[in-house]
Amino acid sequence: MLRKGFAFAALGLVLLAGPALAATTQEEPKHLEWSFDGPFGKFDKQQVQRGYKVYREVCSACHSMNLMYFRNLGQTGGPFYDPKYQNPNDNPIVKSLAHDIQVKDIDPDTGDVISRPATPADKFAPPFPNEPAARASNGGALPPDLSVMSKAREGGSDYVYSLLTGFSNTPRGVTVPPGKYYNAYFPGGAIGMPPPLTDGKVTFDDGTASTIKQEAKDVAVFLAWASDPKAEERKAFGFGAMIYLLIFSGLLYASYRRIWRNVAH
Amino acid sequence: MADTVVGANPDPHASGDDPNRRDFIHIAAGVAAVGLVGGLAWPLINQMNPAGDTLALASIEFDLSKVVEGQQVVVKWRGKPLFVRYRTAKEIAAAIKDDHSDLRDPATDESRHKPGKAQFLILIGTCTHLGCVPTFGGGDYGGWFCPCHGSVYDTSGRIRKGPAPLNLAVPDYSFLSDSKVKVG
Amino acid sequence: MSGHSTYEPKSGFERWLDSRLPIIRFANDTIVTFPTPKNLNYWWTFGGILSLMLGMQIVTGIVLAMHYVPSADGAFNSVQRIMRDVNYGWLIRNLHANGASMFFLAVYMHMFRNLYYGSYKAPREVLWILGCVIYLLMIGTAFFGYVLPWGQMSFHGAVVITNLIGAIPVIGPSVTTWLWGGFAVDNATLNRFFSLHYLLPFMIAGVVGLHIWALHVPGNNNPTGVNVKSAEDTVSFHPYYTVKDGFAISVFLIMYAVFVFFMPDALGDAANYVQANPLVTPQHIVPEWYLLPFYAILRAVPNKLMGVILMFGAIATLFVLPWLDTSKVRSLRYRPTARLYYGIFFLTCIVLGFCGAHSPDDPVIPAISGPQLLDANLNSFVWLSRIAALYYFAYFWVITPLLGLTETPLPVPESISSPVLSHPASAPVGAVASPEKRG
Asked: Same domain, yes or no, for A198 and A243?
């Protein structure tokens, strides 16, 4: 009788869980298949490289990535990782990518603020010196830092993709304040970011057709990698750990059965 | 066993069938447990090693054109001072002259700089005694003098007097161009 | 600790040490020969699991503190640095963050086991109260720890919880300011919370020592709830229960590892990956899952002070439980009526958890617009949590005392050994397959 009660209760809980998701006005993100989903998922290095290019040429005009260093691009699991260069600082691709970006520094002789080419040990250069400057340039809205964006939003990469491809004409009955744009996937519907991507905006080095959807997908993958650069290492380690624990449990169970076999209990 | 509280129970180690298999299972389980603890211990120990951002700063590039002849520039490298010294011809000659005198840590001056770049001496600026920073221009040999315990180094950074056992260390470095070096 | 010691020093050194510091004797009597009822089922393995989790949290925590920067400017980035740059930092931090959830999961299993088999009843009242103290310290530690990553949920969670103290009449506001060390949750608050987060686990370890001491005086309860009558009822702790606990720990570790390696953020909140911003509050402030039932009780009451009192009352009630239960029989195995109420109580706790996760005004059943009752719609989570909170308190303060006086329990076996082959197939809530049938 008790067990039947639990079954009913479980059913009730499922019914309870439903409305919570539907209660918000925000559109649910579209669900995509990502190469890094699941316990064996991996990042497609080519795709992360393309995504980095989208970030570098489009997003980085307004969005900082304060937790990312150029060396991250060449570290194990990174998009430009090369086994020849175990120290990512020596990776020539990473060096040249960094070198083309100017970062602020202090001249050690004069103490003046100078610009110099970045090295792999430098952070991605932020587009604005501080928060008020960022707000002033964006109509009062603050472009969020993208370092952990995929983890910082419900829906992760699905959300990033849906948002970037989700701009549309304002539906009837919805008013969008001046300077804002309608996007059904954004909480409240009115976002300060103008539609950032257009077909052909970025020329991909590997010849992939540069559609809005492709750009959005690739940059979502790049952000997913940047949010969790150790994900592949984590899953590989976890796979070994699971096998070890299963064997360990089996051994302990056999040991347990043998020790207890003569005890009536 | 009968006199203990648990005496009523069968002894788990005394019983009929194949003793080898029984022992093997208990031993294997014990070994696996030790392996598990060891496997977890390694990350917990390794985390104290230098992290990725620290390692990223482990090599630096330096422009030698900033150093004036007869002077030294001190750069911070891996948290320690690095002496970059532009030696005069007289100092180089003095160093070569002492190549075969009675040195505590014998080394020729030639081995302490890059070929053809005798004027540039790059040294890790910590005394080999107990890690203090020697000052330039002190002591009797025209090199460095450590204020902590009085070690004296010559113009090649070799130990000549005092308690330090070794010469000032030469880091791994290479010339990227005529005036640019990469240290580390 | 109780009864006579069975330890006999074997070598000269052991005799020498035994007469000076009988530490081997102590270890032998507590974890080797300690007589333990032979019919303990898998619900009794959570004590060992909890010891492991406490050790795991302390060890990983000490390691994380080597890299963590307790300042409002540096905390968020230092946690991210641990995830990105520190060798195996991602592993250690995931172990610690998910470890808190696993710790609470195990402690709830331990507590529900206790309630089902009446382990809190005489002579184990002090043992139970010490357990409640540990639970309170755990809540405190978890709260302080959750603030440390300094994400949006950390910050605003700290704001909401510290503001509860403001509900105390007269002294409330000044106590809150004292706790903050300023006029809001800020750098000073973060620093002291870090210090306390480091301190409390060692206090927990101390109380755990007392808890185990108090366990070893009367010895373990068991699924029948019948006292141990003879040596036939018991086995030595080692190897019988070391290996059984070890097996359970290993299975528990598998579940823990699934979270750590394959879904490390499943139990967390996305908003905590946004750095704390005192000027913007996230849309839904919710605590971690293990505190949701208490959060639901807090929000069920429209009055701030009453809400706080009820929330703490829900935990305080546990302390007096041994004196609320009037039943002569310990184990619910022989109390079918009580078992039914216990099952409803277990579900109530889960329902409260769901209420805590939802906005109070959200409808429970979406399609129906229920009638308005007093201040809220009847079809809303606030009313559901009121009903559930009512049952929570009624279970302890009304049902448990009355049931013990009125019900007729089933016949209780003479001793642990006699019902071995014929006990009814019942186990605490959640047991799909009755585990004690094994082996």
From this structure: no
